Every structure is written in C-alpha cells, then in structure tokens.
Amino acid sequence: MVEKKFRIDFDESNVLESVTYTLVSEFNLKPNVLRADIGGDGHGFMLLSLVGDKDDMIRGIARIREIGFKVRELSGHIFHDYERCWSCGACVSLCPTRSIYHEPDTMEVKLNTTTCIACGACINACSVKAIQLEL
Questions:
Q1: Tell me: the pLDDT tens digits for 110-127?
Q2: Cα separation of 116 and 86, whole Å?
Q3: Where are the alpha helices (DSSP H) in 1-135?
C-alpha cells in the first residue's frame, strides 16, 4: 500500500465528473479530499490523498487524466524556519488542516509536518519568508 497526494484541476468541461467515485469503484483506491475549491464557473482544484496499490494508483490517475483532468502529484513539503519566524500567526488561520498552530504555552507558531498537505496557503502570508515550499 502506498499513499500519495495529488492536485486535480477542474474546468467547465469536466466539473460534473466524479473523480473520487471513479477512483473507488474502478481502482479500489481510498481517496481523502484534503481541500477543494471549485467556483460557480466550474474552474477549481482539489487536493486529494490516495491510498492503495501502486499499480492501481497509476492506472487510476491515468484514467482521471483521460477524462480530462489536469493531475499533478504533490511531492514537496513545507519548511518552517523557526529562527526567522516572529510567531505573528498570519499563517495560522489559512491552514486548512490546522497543521500550523500556536503552541498554547509559548504562543510560538509551530508546524506539524505529519498532517501538512503542502497546499502552500501559508507561504504568502509570511512577511518574513519563514515558510517555504521545498520540492
């Protein structure tokens, strides 16, 4: 079993297709939608974690691409430079998984790398550039 994370982009031509149903029913994969933002015009994206057999995952992603979705594997991770960070908290409210948080005792901003999905929402919020996406 492997787990990988993907960004899947939608447009008006494929927004009504069911990505998760296809991956479950045709390829026995276990999807977890980490974040999704799809606008009224049909454009948007979904961050998806997939768990399953490696070969099934390869075939499943190929099928999603055949349907017309743009799919990109997320292989990077967020790096938090604690020496540079001022713990202002501008990034905390933007994290969809609450992986960036204030430590209750010290109020220092901390990053939980095991739950971080590397979506990048926190990066632009940091005025001192203490948060970076490493590929």
A1: 999 888 888 888 998 999
A2: 20
A3: 19-27, 54-67
